[in-house]
Amino acid sequence: MDLDMRRVRYFVAVAEESSFVRAASRLHMTQPALSRQIRALEEDLSVVLFQRDRQGTLLTRAGHQLLEDARPMLSMAQAVQQRVRMANREVNHFTIGFMPGVIVTPIVREFARTAPQLDIEVVHTSITDQVDFLLDGRVDVCYVRLPLPEGMFEVVPLFPEPRVVALSSAHPLAELKAVHVEDLRDMTLLQDPLDVPEWRGRVPRHPVMPLEDTGRFPVTIEECLEGVASGAGCYVMPAGMAGFYRRDDVAYLTLEGVAPRMVALAYTKHRTMPELHQFAELSRRMLGPGAD
């Protein structure tokens, strides 16, 4: 049986709210009606998705798996609708996502010259939302920093980008030009240590100010840099982003002993729009190995 996307969307709301009552309010429907839709989805899948007890509404193992798959699936369904509507317009629309530290103006200018039939738009993204922009169709193609989820995108590697560490300007090491990752062991890394596999130092047990939610790392780069400026720890980022986030109370040092981040171009798999391949080839020629 094919999945009912409407019921999947209801399921995600309940999973995110951990409550049928709050999810029903969010979806502007009654709680009994929502419960019936979730039961129907469970019957379709022949599984139990939620456990209900005094602690609230908890996901089962099957529920966790569905939630992991459902979010990108809903985003891609939204992207399909958007692209179909765009295709119905007389002028073809082509949206390019870019991030701080990756200069794309010459490429976009050259692409516009060779593809005059396109209405080209350039949209700012960040490391934290680059996948979302690709999945939900807000951009057709996006400059990204790897890694990306495997199996979902066509990826064109362009160039490796060294990384820097952000320290408070008041830190004793801030006067140096470079530092090795081992020299930072006594500091706290203000991000998920999976972002820096070489890290062997401390990570925060409690949220870094100004965050209030317990048990999570700072989400945005701006939040991380606030923690750095206050002396709470350090933050590792691609070198190209340092100039974009320049501030007097933060110093950026070249970080040795860590692998660079690969800058790449990405777009959703299985798309046949010929301009995607044209733009990818242009990016490879102007930014890839051997580019001027």
UniProtKB/TrEMBL annotation:
Asked whether the keyword Oxidoreductase is assigned, the reply is no
Q: Where does the HTH lysR-type domain start and stop, copy by copy?
A: 1-60
Instruction: State a single Gene Ontology molecular function.
Output: DNA binding
Q: Which UniProt keywords apply?
A: DNA-binding, Transcription, Transcription regulation
Q: Which domain of life is it from?
A: Bacteria
What cellular component GO annotations does this protein have?
A: protein-DNA complex
Does the record bear Glycosyltransferase in its keywords? no
Q: From what organism does this protein derive?
A: Streptomyces shenzhenensis
Protein name per UniProt: LysR family transcriptional regulator
* Family membership noted in the UniProt record: Belongs to the LysR transcriptional regulatory family.
UniProt xrefs under PROSITE patterns? HTH_LYSR
